[in-house]
Amino acid sequence: MGELSWWHWLIVIGVAVVLFGAKRLPDAARSLGQSTRILKAELRADPGPGADPHPSADLHPSADLHPGADPRPPAGPQPAADTPPPG
User: Which of 8, 28, 80, 81 would staple 4 via disulfide (CB 3.0–4.6 Å)?
Assistant: First the structure.
């Protein structure tokens, strides 16, 4: 009941080919690899359970440059940068 020998692996692979078919096995392996990469990327990006989901005010350099300025962007529609001025 120890480790699997090479003929055990051959039987497992043969059963997988019979059950899923030779065409679907590469797609299944590719999907599994993609899922693993996505999971690793999400785990790296996760700040952790105790982290603040919103950045603090310390990260905004404009707040340090203008102490009395309102940190919110101006309200109203902004003109597109690539459109010429009217007139």
Answer: 8
